[in-house]
Amino acid sequence: xxxxPDRVAERYARRQVGDRYSMLRPEVWQTVHERQRAMLTxxxxxxxxxxxxxxxxxxxxxxxxxxxxxxxLGFRPEHLSGIELLPDRVAEARRCLPAALALHEGDxxxxxxxxxxQDLVFVATVFSSLLDDAFQQRLAEAMxxxxxxxxxxxxxxxxxDNPRNPDVRGVPLARVRALFPxxxxxxxxxxxxxxxxxxxxPLHPALYTLxxxxxxxxxxxxxxxxKP
Length: 228
What we know:
- The chain has 228 residues and is of the alpha/beta class.
- It has helices at 4-13, 26-45, 65-73, 87-96, 133-146, 173-179, 194-200, 206-212, and strands at 56-59, 80-84, 102-105, 118-124, 147-158, 184-192, 218-226.
- Strand 2, helix 4 (87-96) and strand 3 form a beta-alpha-beta unit.
């Protein structure tokens, strides 16, 4: 059995992020709103019209922020679920999410998720924290099994390495294709490089949009990985 989940917990335990992801920071809310718009664009492209009818599972749901966003977009709580490795994050998510929304604590590979039970499996900045290639592949295979035929994996992660953080690594599009070889990938490049966003957005929020017009400065991919 892989020790990667234990290693991930150890890596997160030593992170000191402070208020880096607070919605009070202009670069954070701009990043979140940009990703929401891009996600809605992908939904429209792929014929999604009735969000309340869809079943969606988030792998690595953290404190529940993404699931709260999805509730606001119109997903029903009883059709949403999340898996999170870290107990303190699960506890925080449980405090802020409706009771009808199911949360699973622990290693995602051990989660009791039925095959072909989900219209969408959402994963955001999770694979960049997994440094074991074999574990990445097993998790991708599990996620693919959970998706119904005609459904999709909804992917968001960064593509380039962060030289200041050896606990993460970028996941380029070629790796995404290798992880989901049977998937049909429709992707958008999004998210102004965080170091640039942190430098310019506090000066004026419009600078985020200005710099983000340059595709070379976008560091993340939002992808719809369709299952035939």
